[in-house]
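Friendly challenge for the regulars: who can give me the C-alpha cells for this chain first? No prize, just bragging rights.
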Amino acid sequence: MAHLLTTFNPATGKEIASYPVHDPTKIELSLQLAVKTQREWLKTSMETRAELLKNIAQGLRKEKEYLARLATEEMGKPLNQSREEVEKCARTLDFYAENGAAFLADEDVPTDAVKSYVSYRPLGVVLAIMPWNFPYWQVFRALGPIIMAGNTMILKHASNVCGCALAIEKVVLAAKTPKGVLQTVLIPGSQVGALIDHPAIAAVTLTGSTEAGRRVAEAAGRNLKKSVLELGGSDAYVIMEDADLEPAADVLVKGRLVNSGQSCVAAKRFVVVKAVRKQFEKLVKDRIMAARTGDPMKQDNTVGPMARADLRQELHDQVTKSIEMGAKLICGCGIPAGDGYYYTPGVLSGVKKGMPAYNEELFGPVAVIIEARDTADAIRIANDSEFGLGSGVFTADRAVGEEIAKNELEAGSCFVNDFVHSDPRLPFGGVKKSGYGRELGVYGMREFVNIKTVYIK
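First reply, four minutes later:
Bragging rights claimed.
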C-alpha cells in the first residue's frame, strides 16, 4: 500500500511534493462527519445553499491566479486555459445558485388524490472520483448541483493533482461552508472499491477512463448504489463537401489541442468526404504545425506537456502501431528531446478500421483524418466506435446539419459547425462505452436526488 502520493511537474519531470495517504481512521472520521453534516444540511433552505454557492464562486475568483498556477504546475495545462477553467467553475456555481431552487421545486401531478406531487430529496453522501485533466472543472460541475440538492460530497481526486484537491477543499471552507459538506480524501485508486462499499456512501459519480468506469460500476452495482459515469470518448466530426473548410479547420484544431489534447470530449477523429479530404488535410496540418508547444506558464504557448510520462508513451505507442499498420504520418507525432513530458502535436491520415487511431481514444495532441466516400459513409464511420460522448458535423446547410446531429450521430452531445464543449445550461454525458447519466443542466441536478412521490388521499 502506498503511504505517500507524490506529484510531479510535467513540464520538467521534477517532483513537486509528497502527501501522506489518509489512514483508515481518518477516512472513517471523514465519512462519519459527512453523514452527520448531511443530516443538518438537508434542512437548510434553498436560499442558504444558493448563498453558499455564490460565496464559493467569489472565493474561486479571488484565488484564480493561485489556483491556475497550481493546476498548470501539477498537470501541465497552459496557464490561460487554467485561468479560464477556474472562471468557468465560478460561473457554474452561480448558475446553480440562481436556478437550483427552480430545478428542484415540487411538481404537482393531478391524480385521484386530494393532493399528489413529485418532490426531489437528497440521497446523502456522494463519492466523487475525479480525473486530473480538468482538476477544478470536473469537481465543481459535480459539487454545485450535489450540495445545492442537499447532499454532501467526499472527493477522491487523481493522485497527480493532490495540491489541487486540497486547494479545492480550502476554497470551499473559506466560504464558511459547514465542515463536512466537502471533504477530500487522499488515497490511491486501489482503495476506491472499499470506499464505495462503505455504508456511509449513498451514490458515486466518476469522470475517468472506460476501464475505471467498469470497476466503479461493478462496485456500485454490487452495493445497489446510484452511479453516474462520464468516461472516455473518441469524438468524430463529419466534414461535408459543402463545409466552409478554413473555419472548420480553425475550430477543430482548437478542439483537438485544447488542454494539450487531453480531454475526453476533444475533437479527435476528422471524418472527411473524399472530395475535400486533401484540401482539409492541408489546412489541419498547417494549423497543427503552427501550434506553439512549450512551457505552459508562458503566455504564448498553446500546447503544454502531457500530464505523465506513461500517458505520453501510451499515446506514442498507439501512433507508432497505427503507422506500422498503414496510417500516413502527415506531421509531428514525436517525443522531443529534453525535460518534461512533451509530445509534438501531429496529424495522422489514411487511418482505417482496426488501427489504434481508429478504434481507440488518443488522449493527446494528435488529429486523425479518415476519408469517407460521401456523407452517408462519413456518418457510418463516425458512429463506428465503442464511444459515444460527443460528435459533430460541419456543413453550410444548418438544417441538414441539425438533422444529422439530432437523428443520425450516436453521442450524448452533437454539435453543428462547432466542437463539442460543456455548458452548465446543457446536460453533458455519453452513451455506449462513454458512460451513462448526465451532469449539468436540470438533468445533472436531478441525478443525485430521490425523485419522491407524495400522495395524499
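Residues 50 and 98 are 7 Å apart (CA to CA). The chain has two domains: 4-231+434-456, 235-423. Your move, everyone else.
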